[in-house]
Amino acid sequence: MKQSRRDLLKFAGAAAVASRLAEAAPKSPASGGVPKRLLGKTGVEVSCLALGGHHIGTLPDVKASVRLIHQAIDAGITFMDNAWDYHDGRSELWMGEALKDRRDRVFLMTKCCSHGRDKRTAIEQLEASLRRLKTDHLDLWQIHEVAWDDDPEKHFMKDGAVEALAQAKKEGKVRFIGFTGHKSPELHLKMLSHGFPFDTVQMPINAFDSQFRSFQKEVLPELAKQGIAGIGMKSLNGSGAPIQQGLLTVEEALRYALSQPIATLVSGIDSEKVLRQNLAIVQRFKPMTPEEMKALEQRLAPKAQDGGLELYKTTRKFEGPVGRAQHGMSAEG
Asked: At 146, is the secondary structure helix, strand, or coil?
């Protein structure tokens, strides 16, 4: 049954944060066999594999997008990722079309892309996202792409984006709030230093991260202290280059990421073939032992120590159009 805003306003999570190993272990399976995990202290369970919204907008047309989203939901993926600026709103529009009769079966997340501009801009983006997604509320609304040195300061300025998050949650337009970023653990820690009640934080989680500006080493422990859910992304390094170079397999990459203390892993899925592949991996998933993780990290260390395969950390190639424009960069940047 669909929850009303009034019902959402009454919601209060009370679950404690699981230990590192417990959080990485499979929990109750979603319909279709995809394991679920607790979303931090919210008390909500989500599928450990999330459908990435960026890739949804790259499909040939809305019919192909709707078909893939429906297949993912029917297979047991409950967590839907998106963002206001993905493909000029196309990703949200197509996902909204797919969810018209399935909204109550998913945990829907999208992101505002104001990069710390005024609260009003963030709220306007939220209203646009709700219209595109054909819903009256989000399960999770996150600040997108904390990637510029002045982002933390701007987000927390008077009438900044975090005030929009708080207002939207109070009004019942969103259940939970968080932020994302792929650039620097230091920026994430600055965001977390304000004591703001974030429910989630999204970041790169992959087998190369531990060697260079590591989110796993620096940010995940802080999230555990604060009871905030970690959301992983870029398990294939944002481009798939390590897979193409034969450095590791897709299964090794996903299994390593899912063995970290995260609630879910956002995966770019742009075909039925990739969907079937990733579903098979998570359905047979068993956490890596510490020894297995260390062995994989050591094997990859010669290629991981300078960030050369994590270009989202070392270049501006992965920054979105809104942030680029605000910082005087071209679309190609």
From this structure: coil
Distance CA 11, CA 4 (A): 11
Do the Cβ atoms of 331 and 257 come closer than 8 Å? no
Token pair for 154 = 């701007």
Q: How far apart are CA 69 and CA 217, in angstroms?
A: 33
List the chain domain ranges: 29-326
This prediction has a pTM of 0.90
What is the model's pLDDT at position 34? 97
Residue 73 CA: distances (Å) to CA of 130, 244, 286, 325: 20, 28, 22, 35
CATH class of 29-326: alpha beta
- Which residues are 201's β-sheet partners? 179, 230
Residue 316 CB-density burial (10 A; 0-12 exposed, 13-18 middle, 19+ buried): middle
301-307: long-range pairs with CB below 8 Å, 24+: 301/211, 303/208, 303/242, 303/247, 304/207, 304/208, 304/210, 304/211, 304/212, 305/211, 305/212, 306/212, 307/212, 307/213
> Is it the case that residue 13 has pLDDT exceeding 60?
no
Distance CA 286, CA 297 (A): 18
